[in-house]
Design brief:
InterPro entries: DUF6464 (IPR045589). Pfam families: DUF6464. By secondary structure, the protein is an all-beta fold. It contains no helices and seven strands. It folds into two domains: 65 residues, no CATH class; 45 residues, no CATH class. 0% of the residues lie in helices and 43% in strands. The strands form two sheets. A five-stranded mixed β-sheet has the order 2-1-5-4-3, with no helix packed on it. Strand 1 and strand 2 form a beta hairpin. It starts with 6 loop residues before the first strand and ends in a 37-residue tail after the last strand.
Length: 120
């Protein structure tokens, strides 16, 4: 059985089970996971093994998660939340810093807004 086809149990911080999933990626602590439209932050990843024919085999992955409410004026970019408007050239693409020109924000009505040009 491939690692990414293993059943994954998702447990909320209060030890209630959110569900059993089959994920096509291997989330590590610090990653964000979406379950039924809600975003969760992965706090811990554990493996459960089963003894079969004298050998231990990875049987299940357990993720302990915490409910995550995205900050206002943020976007999900490559699996992580970044602050500010990512369509702006000056956006820092950081979880901590909004912008190189206007770090305290806000992004809407910013006089320095420059649209990000897509290079072909």
């Amino acid at each position: 059985m491939e690692l990414n086809s293993l059943p994954t149990e998702v447990i909320l911080g209060d030890r209630s089970t959110l569900g059993h999933l089959h994920l096509n990626w291997n989330p590590q602590p610090g990653a964000y996971l979406e379950v039924e439209g809600q975003t969760y932050l992965v706090l811990e990843r554990r493996h459960r093994y089963r003894l079969s024919a004298g050998h231990y085999h990875l049987h299940q992955i357990v993720l302990q998660v915490q409910k995550f409410d995205a900050p206002t004026e943020s976007s999900l970019l490559n699996g992580r939340w970044v602050v500010g408007d990512i369509s702006c050239l000056y956006n820092a693409r950081s979880e901590l810093l909004r912008c190189t020109v206007n770090p305290s924000g806000p992004c809407d009505r910013c006089p320095d807004y420059q649209p990000l040009l897509n290079e072909a």
